[in-house]
Amino acid sequence: QVQVVESGGGLVQPGGSLRLSCAAPGSIFSIARMRWYRQAPGKERELVASITSSGTTMYGDSVKGRFTISRDNTKNAVYLQMNSLKPEDTAVYYCNLWVVTMATVYWGQGTQVTVSS
Hints:
It is a single chain. Helices cover 3% and strands 50% of the residues. It is mainly beta and 117 residues long. The strands form two sheets. Strands 2, 4, 5, 6, 9, 10 and 11 form a seven-stranded mixed sheet that branches. The longest helix is centred in the N-terminal third of the chain and has 4 residues, at 26-29. It is globular, with a radius of gyration of 14 Å.
């Protein structure tokens, strides 16, 4: 299984910012579609943002205008810049790597984001 490594979670006050990172092997990263999911206590997992290998992005309605997903194919990494954070954004955030041509999905271990004063 391909190892997907996440980092950047932590505690931040409402209105603050946080940047999540996710790294994957270079042999497969450049051809993969990357996604960020999140799951809050008592709620179902939801799609936060996605980015294709060519850079096309999509966002969930709850984060549009506040979050930005990007990728660096040189560093084999995907990022989620989270601005204007709200307590409702508190969740475990997961990096998802989808190799479309192989119909294969890999998941990171998750990183906790807590928005609280």
